[in-house]
Structure formats: structure tokens, C-alpha cells
Amino acid sequence: LLPSWQVVALTLLTASGEILECSESINVDIFQAARLHLGCLGVVLTITFQCVPQFYLQEVTFPSTLTQVLEHLDDHLKRSQYFRFLWFPHSENVSVIYQDPTTKPPSSSASWLWDYAVGYYLLEFLLWISTFVPSLVCWINRFFFWLLFSSRVENVAISYKIFNYECRFKQHVQDWAIPIEKTKEALLELKAALENNPKMVAHYPVEVRFARGDEIWLSPCFQRDSCYMNIIMYRPYGKNVPRLNYWLTYEGIMKKHGGRPHWAKAHSCTRKDFEKMYPAFPKFCSIREKLDPAGIFLNAYLEKVFY
């Protein structure tokens, strides 16, 4: 999926049948709303993305600890154009990931990818067993860090192969963006919450990544550089696992630190929450009500968001 800030123009079919050309110079307010509009403003007929020529990325992953990464967070952000890290809950283990443009030739990573795929088949089986013995989760997290992430790995490939990765089996996901300066405090609070509640288990990884601020009204990064903190609870062989306590604890920490949820992932927020989170939310709602006064493009989820 392309980020909404890469949208530089679009054509919108409204509820009345009107076709609107939108860009930074035409229907400017509607354009800023429509770049991320959840489908509630109309049907997008055409879209123009800002792109760059095909390029290669060098990905370097290496092990570290949560304490070390958080203490040197600014250095990591400066060292790599696309820096993120994976924290393994119930431990200090972290896998640091640097991704940067390169002129090096592609490398062969077939062996590592095979190990990674086999590892996830094993993970699903072990997590299924842990649904009967939840205390196993902390050991499973540590085992897979040792198995797949405890050594340095370098890989060069075309950019989309590095940026995209396959979710091997079903999962529940929450993903909130908080102000970047709140990263350390929020992550340590989540770690402490798990340590203080032994019965609350969390699957790996907690993915922590970073994004520049933008001016898109409903963007979680609206007017601030942000840290996305993504949590996962897998569904081994489709089996649901208890997650409510973990979900609510995480949401509480994210809200406390000014978080905004990823629109396409799980959250429990309503219009009252979004009015506090997004300075431009009233402006967006005004345009939505003008373009679709009868609510033709609303559904149950959007009604919760806007009413």
C-alpha cells in the first residue's frame, strides 16, 4: 500500500454524481481530505502518485537490547534512512533493521528466507500449544529471537522485496502513531505493564517504525514526526487467543501519550476520541457532510467514527 502523502492528484465521484478534480491547486481542502478519507467522501476514479525510479535497498539486521536501542534512538534514526526495530515482549531482545538505498548488486537470500518460512510454520504450532499453557509464550518469543534474529544478516534486493513482508498466518493487530519524542516512555510503560501482569501475554514482535509529519487531515502523522508501535496477537490455525487485557492496556498507553490509531487496524475509538486526536477533524467532517449529506458512503464502522 502506498502512503497517502504520495497522492498528488485524484478525481472524486461524489454522492450527487459530480466529478471533482482535486490537487494541491484545485479543490485544495477537498484534496487534503480525500488523500486519506476512508472511502466516505466518494469514489476515487483516478489517482496520481508521486514515484521514484526503481532502486535497490541494502537491509542489515542485527541483535540488540531494548535498553540500548532506546538510549541511542537518535543515533539509529540518523544512521539509516529506513530504520525500525522489533522488540520481543517478555524479554530485552530486539532486532534492529536498517534499510538504505544502495548500488550493490542483489544478493542471494534463498537460504535465509527458507529458514524464516520454516520458522513461522513452527511458530504457529508452538503458539497453538501455548493456547493451553499461556506461560509458554515468553519462552517461545525468546526461542524465535535466538532461532531467527540473534545473528547479523545482510541482504540486497529490489526495494519492494525489502519493504514488503508476508504475514504467514492469521493475526489480530493494533498499530498506533505517537509523537516521536514519546517513543521511549511509551514502550517502557508497555514493557512494565507486561512485567507487572504475568497472566497477560504478548506475541512477538512489537514493531517500532518511524514516519515524518505531514499535512493530511486524517493522517496519524498530521503535523508531527511520529513513531508507529504495532502489536500482534497471532491466531494459530485460526484459533482466537485471549487479547482483551493486552489490547486495552496498549490502547491506554497510546492514548496517554497522544496516540492516533491506524485506520485499517483494530481500535475502539469513537468520534469523541478523534475530535481530541485530530485538530482538523471538524474540517474533515464538514466536508464529508457537504459531499455526502445522506450518508451514502457510510457503513457501520464509519458511523462509529463520525457519529
Structure description:
This protein has 307 residues and is of the alpha+beta class. It has 2 domains: 4-51 and 271-306, 2-Layer Sandwich (Uridine Diphospho-n-acetylenolpyruvylglucosamine Reductase, domain 3), CATH 3.30.465; 56-261, 3-Layer(aba) Sandwich (Vanillyl-alcohol Oxidase, Chain A, domain 3), CATH 3.40.462.10. It has 11 helices and 11 strands. It has helices at 28-34, 66-71, 73-79, 110-130, 137-149, 159-163, 183-196, 244-256, 271-277, 281-291, 300-306, and strands at residues 7-13, 19-23, 43-49, 56-65, 82-87, 93-102, 153-158, 171-179, 206-211, 226-234, 260-261. The strands form 2 sheets. The protein has an 8-stranded antiparallel beta sheet with strand order 7-4-6-5-9-10-8-11, with helices on both faces. A hairpin with a 5-residue loop joins strand 5 and strand 6 (93-102).
